[in-house]
Amino acid sequence: MRTEGEPAAAGLTPGELFEGGTEPSWWADRWAALPRGGRRLVVGLAVLVLLGGGVALVRNWMAERELRQAVELTATVGVWSSSTNRPGGEVGFFVLVGNDGPLPVSVTSVTAAGDGVQVRMRDDGARPVAPGQQIEIPLSVRLTCVPGAGEARPSLDGEIGVRRDDGGSTSRPVALRPATPVLDVAATLCGVRPDLRDHELSGPVLRSPGDG
Fold this sequence. Notes:
By secondary structure, the protein is α+β, with helices and mostly antiparallel strands. The protein has helices spanning about 15-20, 25-35, 35-70, 180-190, and strands at about 75-80, 90-100, 105-115, 115-120, 125-130, 135-145, 155-165, 170-175, 200, 205.
C-alpha cells in the first residue's frame, strides 16, 4: 500500500513495471511454460519470418528498379528527296526510333559512324517517345571522301542517348539500318568529287563539276 504523495510506480520491480502492473501477463506465463527448445523454435520462426519479409521487400525493390531502368529501342534509317528545288533538289536523312520498353523515354542524342561518314541528330533537344510508339528524328550526315567511304554494309554502328522516366540518363548501342540510303549517296558523291571534306549530305544535292 502506497502512502499519500508516493508515486504510483513506487515499490514496483522493473519486471512489474514492464508488464504493466503486478499481475503477470498472459504471454509471460505462456513463455515461462515453454521448454527451452520450444523457446528456441519460436525465436527461430520469428527470425525466418523477418528474413522472408526482408527478402521479399528487396526483390520488389529490385523489380521496380529494373522496370524504371528498362530501355528497349529500335532504329530504322530513312531518306526523303525532292526534285522541285533547282538545281537537283534536296535530300534529307532521318531515323525512326521506336520505344519497345514499358516506360516513356526521351531521346537526347543519336550518333553513328562509318568510313568517312559521321551521323548525328540534326538538332539538339530531347525528343519524348511513348511506349509502343516511334518518332522521326532528322539526321545530319557529314561525308569525307576517304578510302572505303560508301562501301556497302548492312548497318552503321551507332548509339542512342536517352533520358529515362525516372530522370536518369543512359545510352544504348544500336545498329542504324539499312545503311544503304546513306552509303549509296556517299559512294556516288565520292565517285565524282573525291576531294570532298566534311560535306553535309542533308540539304541541296551537290552537282558534279560537269553539270550545266
